[in-house]
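Students often ask why inverse folding is considered easier than folding. One informal answer: many sequences map to the same fold, so there is more than one right answer. In these notes we will look at a single instance of the problem. The structure comes first.
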């Protein structure tokens, strides 16, 4: 069963049958971006133990992950290089993206050995479904550290 949320109930009735189509290319692209955001969060938290992912925006063309906490003193240029290197290494391995928990109350996403993260979004089944994650920038914005990125399916 799939729940659908609509802007208006106009023209719909309980028990009615309605057709719809899923744009598979768009869904795949969004799954790649969404899973990439979770992977960036896990990797950066492991590289910078003082940072915790608190927000994400995974739309193609404007994707970012935001962190709160204290970043270590090293410059963000070096961190971007280190993050990019680690992401490339992980994308080259057969790592599963698992959905766990109850879909209505405790759904989580777990990538490899990274901690599970509560999430109800669309995701790839394995990192092999992501060809590249490109870190565009890492910068401080207010009290947050923001990582902007692009991602591509194979």
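Output (designed amino acids):
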């Amino acid at each position: 069963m799939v729940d659908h949320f609509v802007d208006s109930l106009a023209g719909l009735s309980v028990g009615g049958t309605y057709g719809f189509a899923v744009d598979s290319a768009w869904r795949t692209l969004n799954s790649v971006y969404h899973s990439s955001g979770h992977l960036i969060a896990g990797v950066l938290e492991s590289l910078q133990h003082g940072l915790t992912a608190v927000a994400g925006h995974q739309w193609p063309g404007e994707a970012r992950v935001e962190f709160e906490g204290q970043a270590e003193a090293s410059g963000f240029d070096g961190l971007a290089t280190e993050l990019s290197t680690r992401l490339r290494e992980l994308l080259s391995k057969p790592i599963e993206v698992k959905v766990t928990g109850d879909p209505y109350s405790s759904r989580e996403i777990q990538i490899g050995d990274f901690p599970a993260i509560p999430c109800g979004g669309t995701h790839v089944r394995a990192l092999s479904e992501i060809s590249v994650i490109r870190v565009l920038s890492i910068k401080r914005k207010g009290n947050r550290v923001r990582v902007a990125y692009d991602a591509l399916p194979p």
